[in-house]
Amino acid sequence: MKFVTVTANPAIDLTVHAPNWQRGEVSRGERLDKTAGGKGISVAINLGDAGEKDVIVTGWMGDHNDGTFTEAFEEHGVKDEFIRIPGDTRRCIKIIDDNNGETTDINLPGLEIPAEAVQKLEDYLEKTIDGDSVLVMGGSLPPGVPAQYYAQLVAKYRDKCRYVVVDTSGKALTEVMQAEVLPHVVKPNIHELEELCGHELEDDAHIVEQARKFLDQGVELAVISMGSHGAWFVRKDQAIHAAPPRVKVMSTVGAGDAMVAGVVRGLALGQDLETIARTSTAYSAANIQHMGVALPEPEVIERLMKRVMISQLP
């Protein structure tokens, strides 16, 4: 199985640890972490750490400051096929209050993507995607790329590969979910789901009901993540809730991407839905216990899986 992740708008995440920082005040930071960011990149790193050998990262990236990314790709055993364009990849600022675990994000816009770079990525995908591929698209879209871009890729590749998975937000997510051809798998968080349906979802039954509307449109699996409240994994014949184990939270950055990695790997391995829910929730719980994106040893994942609480709705 070949995993191809597309990160259209990667970022170098600059994470400032500033306990008890106050908005509008001069605050003291304790340290700065610099990591490679972007949903598809984080998914790929988790897949590499899980032991998958054929993992590819692609998208667009500035050629002036790509060292942070190339080091991460080499460390985690993923193949770098990013299209380089002139300039600096954007930085995103994250401020973490280590005393309460809260994270504040300041996400900057990305580089303007020229038309020739868009074509290069399309040419690469055309020659790379085949019937043994899992295609994962994640994150925001940079300037110069239309909001319909992910939806267009879904329409092109849904029937040409094993699974197409989308984890995005805002206008890009709306375009994907309103298109005629939908992905095999979507993973909105609860806030994105409520934005899609236009109202607050009051309880689990309403969340599952809304997820099943996506299934009626052609989605095979909808995963609704809810932070510390766990996630719903919904198929036409099953709705499984996975509650994560209680762990010490260092950073929530990349938790959802780790969950996506667990989902797509589970699908590729032919796992049942409960195993997918347990594994992907364990991946997420493992990631939030440290800075950056990485999975621990398999023994740690197995222990976390045993602590995931599973429940179901009819």
What is the class in the CATH system? Alpha Beta
Mean pLDDT across all amino acids: 94
Number of strands: 15
* Domain tally: 1
pLDDT < 50 runs, ≥5 residues? none
Organism: Suttonella indologenes
Pfam family, one: PfkB
Family: Belongs to the carbohydrate kinase PfkB family.
Protein name: Phosphofructokinase
In short:
The protein has 314 residues and is of the alpha/beta class.
Report on the structure:
A hairpin with a 2-residue loop joins β13 (about 230-235) and β14. The two termini are about 30 Å apart. The protein is globular and about 50 Å long. Strands 1, 4, 5, 6, 9, 10, 11, 12, 13, 14 and 15 form an 11-stranded mixed sheet that branches. A 4-stranded mixed sheet has the order 3-2-7-8. α1 (about 40-50) packs across α8 and α9 packs across α10 (about 300-305). It is about 35% helix and about 25% strand. It has one domain: Ribokinase (UDP-N-acetylmuramoyl-L-alanine:D-glutamate ligase, 3-Layer(aba) Sandwich). The protein has helices at about 40-50, 65-75, 115-130, 150-155, 170-175, 190-195, 205-215, 255-270, 275-285, 300-305, and strands at about 1-5, 10-15, 30-35, 55-60, 80, 85, 90-95, 100-105, 135-140, 165, 185, 220-225, 230-235, 240-245, 310-314. It has about 325 residues and is of the alpha/beta class.
What labels would you give this structure?
314 residues, alpha/beta, UDP-N-acetylmuramoyl-L-alanine:D-glutamate ligase, eleven-stranded mixed β-sheet, four-stranded mixed β-sheet, 36% helix, globular, nucleotide-binding
